[in-house]
User: Fold asparagine synthase (glutamine-hydrolyzing) from Pseudomonas aeruginosa.
Amino acid sequence: MCGILGYIGTGFSVSRFAGALRLLAHRGPFGEGIAALPNGAIGMTRLPMSGAAAVPLPPQEGQRRVAYNGEVYQAGCEIHGEIRLLLDGLQRGVLPDGMYALASWDPQTRQLTLLRDEFGIKPLYYSYQPERGLLAFASEPRALLHLLGGARADAEAIAQVVAAGVPLEGQTLFQQVRLLLPGEVLRFDLSQERPRLCQRQRLATAPASEADSLDEQLGETLERCRQTFRPCALLVSGGVDSNLLGSYLDPQLQRFHLCLEGDEESLLPHPRLQRFELRQEAFMPLLRRAVGNFGGATRMSSLLMYQRLADGIGEQGYHCVLLGEGADELFWGYPRHLELWRRRDAPEPRRFAAAWFGEYRRKATLLAEPAGRRVAERIEELAHEALGQGLEAAIGQFDLHYSLEPLLRRADHLLMSRTIEARTPYLHGALAQRAGYLQRIVGDTAKAPLVALLEQREKRWQAQPKRHFRLPFERWPQALGEMRRHLAERLPALHDLGLEGLDAPSVAALPGDQLFTLTTLSLWQQEYGASL
Assistant:
């Protein structure tokens, strides 16, 4: 895995660019390099996974220079072969199977191309300011902000996080800093003095499996995903997804599990299982660090859990872990899927949006008007637009942008803070296409094809209710108290961010999930204050 960086515009500074690249050193401590572009440069740090041979960075492929973060899952490929497959896929309009973010400079056409994989497994942030003649991009927000010299807080994105727990349309909490969307390609013309966006398109991955069964297909995909010369481990939660992956793996392969204070375990015994503990007393210091690494506010309390896992796995010397991410979204494993599918008819937009965002209208009352009303209306507009494609397509769209992409970005940023690559077998090998053809819900059983396969492969498995990978706030009174005290002390600063409806009585009454979202917003404001 790697980090990539780029800047094109007047006022380009080599020293500032080099400083930004150093902020990505944890993503690639085994090499770095810079290539000059008109009025700028692209750069790359490297964590080799498919092969350890040294290569000049960013790699050169023909006349092109390519800054590349990720893996293409094709046997025998090293970095140059992977880049060739990606460049060929861009030309054909169909992407190869893998996880990647890429910046490709072609001096013949004078075009710079940015690409992100179909599911957004690998992140890429960018700032395009045509009025200033500026284009900049990076794998993480801190490096991009260093290039830009800072940015203002984005009031609209902040309002969306307060109400929905996530920015809604590719924004970040920084003005004029956006995420490349999953599967998005941006092409910029650099033939003139100022960079000009000349093409925006969305690409999908070509189907990559001829397996006869889900069992065979998952086994093949998992084998491709674990090909690396570095030791690899499996993250085990105790649920269907990680247990199913484990049933294909060598019993001697290392497993890691996070134990939460006050939580009951439901793990199958395993001789190579190592546990890391997360206790309430570590809550605020660990959360502050996690927010800094993530670069934003979020409703995902698993942010803290991934930081603890990253620290523990990093201390054990691992650079590669397998995750079960994506199975719930592709095979419909959440309670919302059961509820929506039982009704079958397309729900009205408010109820559909609530399946992802909860009581977003109530949460929006903390915002100054008209911001609160506008964000609620925008959520319902997005739900209405999605439902116009049909219920299944709407579920897929909301799952991708408001569940899967943030979860994948969380895994990337937190694990890469300790130089650990996350690999996600459920998102590869055309499993997404197969999932769409299967009966994903059978009676009251969500994720039915995976449950049936696990019962077939692991006779010790016993069905159990869905357990979300999140903090048990109902059993963590110390953490709740810390968040309430923190927010009470930070009320004036939060009012500056537009939360005029937040006061001491409301802080005392907020439920744990909303406390968490607002606490991460406050910590983000503190951690990134020097850049705002």
Notes: The chain has four domains: 2-202, 207-331+408-469, 347-389, 472-532. The longest helix spans residues 391-416.
